Every structure is written in C-alpha cells, then in structure tokens.
Model the fold of this input.
Amino acid sequence: MPLAASAATAPDTTRQNRGPQVTTVRYGPVTIAAASGHDHGETGNRLSFNVQKPCDDCYITGFKPNLVYENGANANVNTGPMLHHVVMGNHWKNDVVCSGPQRIFASGNERVESVLPSGYGIRVGRGERWNMLYDLMNHAPEKKTVYISVTYTHEPAAGSRLEPVTPIWMDAGGCLGSAYDVPQGVSEKTRRWRSSISGTLVHMRGHLHHGGRSVRTENLTTGKGLCTIVAEEGGSPEFIDLHGNTEISDMPPCSGAPLGTIHRGDVLQITSRYESTGHAHGDVMGIMAGWVAQN
Ligand SMILES: [Cu+2]
Done:
C-alpha cells in the first residue's frame, strides 16, 4: 500500500506562516474491487501508519472529508465508490472514553464538514504521528481507484490564542466495536459514559448508516441536551447508488461555545435511532464525536 507516501497539495502553507491556512491532503490512491451483482467490492478495514498531517505543531480549526477520483471529481455511490469510514487516530494519546488510541476525527460517506467555533482548535503536537483506519466500498461493476481527501483549516501553535479541545467519542456500539444490529421498524440504542473530564463542549458531529434517523447526546446529570443530529438520506443524486438505494447525505453538526457544560462525574448518554423500513439491518453504527475545551 503506497498510502504513507501520499500525494499532497499544500498551496497555502508556504505562502503564509501565521493565521488561518487551508491544506488539502490526499490519502491514496486506493483501488476498490469491482462489485458483482449485488455483492459490492470492499477493501475491508485497512490501517495506514504515519499518514500525512496538514501541519505540525499547530491547531486544526476545521476539516472537510471527501472521496475523490484522480481528476478531483467526487467519487460517490452514484458512480460506485462509498466512503464506508475513515478514522484518524493518534497512538500517542489515549482516548478519554474508551482508552486505547485517541480518535482524532472520523467520517462516513456523508462527508460532513466540521468547523469549530472561533477560539478553539484541535492541537497537533510537534512530531505527532497519525494512523488512518479506512474501509471503502464499491457498487460499480468495475474496479475504482480513488483518494480519501481531507481539506483542513489550521494555524501554527506559536503565537496562537486558540484553546485546545479534547475529543470524546460517544458510540452506541460501545468500545469494542462500533457495529450493531437493528430490527425492522423504529429502534433506539443508548450507551452511557461517566465523564472523566470537565469543560465546555463546543462541537459535535454524528454518524449513522442507511436507515438511521437521528443521533443525540444528553447530559443525564444536568438534564440538558447537548446535541441532536437528524440524518438526511439521498438528499442529492450523488447519494443514490446504481441500484436506486439511498445513503446518508447529510448529518449537520452542532457547533457553539458552549453547546453545554460537562463536569467530571457527569453521565453522558448517546441515543442512536433507526427507522428501518422493510427489513432488519446488520452492522449499523450510531456515533457522535464531540470536542471539549477542558478547564
Ligand atoms: Cu459506519
């Protein structure tokens, strides 16, 4: 896999060395096997080590994941490829919810952009190494070669007044694996986490699969809702596959300073809601990633 030596375009990073910068990093190429009939091609889970970061000793203030072809055009289910998931991980830091490596951010095929409220950033340490876990699918009857692309906004840590944020990974599937099964009809799955940190929650993004209706996180201790995200499915032709099946096309994140306050010991709960018409679904997910400015 040539992933570590990924192609990159960093047009703005050399021009400026202060203030916000925009860098698009392409990870790949990755070739996904052809589908045969209704059996899709799939890479399966692959882990790439020491993948390119947009910057070093800096803050990331926003990111927009995508899946693209060599020529830059979107690669989506209408032409075959599906970004099943991509997860950036940092083995140098511990995940506060599940221990293990810290999940920095993740995306599914919905490819939603996250923009942190002004004043906050995801700290990237000097020399920190990122790993990338990804799984790509293909519904087209021929193989497809694509790149995972992420457009980052970021700024140098030196002289920055941004407050660092800590990721919290709320997962209805739990810590051992995110996937679970849902029955036909309406169902909700919840999972609780007793917070080990205190601070203000400033951003949350969500992830559901086909049939997923909404995902929300609340602070049970204070009785306050923190973020509810309602999924849009098949919202544009790009998100309708070659068999006419729709995929999640939008999951608008919650952003605000603060979305809510969390104290160490508070119990947070995620609720993942599916409305599966026709049949049960295996291996779905209900995830919310949040970012907390600790105090
Ligand atoms: Cu998923």
